[in-house]
Amino acid sequence: MSLRLSTVILPVRRWHEGGRDQWVRAEEFGFHTAYTYDHLSWRTFRDGPWFGAVPTLTAAAAATGRMRLGTLVTSPNFRHPVTLAKDLMSLDDISGGRITLGIGAGGNGFDATALGQEAWTPRERADRFAEFVPLLDRLLTEESVTHEGTFYSADQARNIPGCVQGPRLPFAVAANGPRGLKLAARHGQAWVTTGDPKLFEAGTGEQSVEALRGQIEKLGKACAEIGRDPGSVEKILLTGFTPEANTMMSSLDAFVDFVGRHRELGFSELVIHAPIPDSDFAVDQDVFEKIATEGLAQLA
Taking 80 as the threshold, does the pLDDT of residue 300 lie above it? Predict the structure, then answer.
């Protein structure tokens, strides 16, 4: 099975002070896709620079010409399907059809309360996600959409002329629970996972691989329930949140070993974080570049 290597560029640098250069270099390194996180702020970066995903991707689309671009991931925490659909259609047009929407249910971090609301419960996040994704799907494939839902409404919302990619730009649905996996099976061109979060700090690499194997099996069952071939869903692993997060990027050999074990599970795309000094992603720049340019070739 062919495997693609992609990267996440966190939006922490001013565009004209190294931000633009990161995206241009990512394309030169040969990454399949460069993603960014769609948050208002995030974890330990909350009190530092953090720029918006949509403007960043718009600028990245203008600065690059081949590499795919996307969010990993957008969530309903501060987004509405109607306005998000308009932004996505525009991004897809500006990029010449290179946008992938990574989308998830969101969590209880800073985004959850930034608009002044109480953080939603896990059940409410799942309920909103279950309404958000199908409505966004319609908004990006139909010229006019009217919808009166429990959480989201649209009144003759128009997205003309539609996406460059047909019938719409691809969705990469992040999900581990049964309801989210059903959404991935029905609406996703791809499925995204970060592994089992319970194993991140105290688990082993072997335990993580088995947990991922179990997630893939559950996705397969969700696909089977609607008569879809599980092989038609691309499988994306966002690395950096497994028990091997601190070792897999320590050298080219360590990365090749990590990739080999996860390719056997059926993943079609692995995503690594671009280095950020003095953070959880403080990977040696030379090692990162060697991985980007030579990593997959070692597995051929």
Answer: no
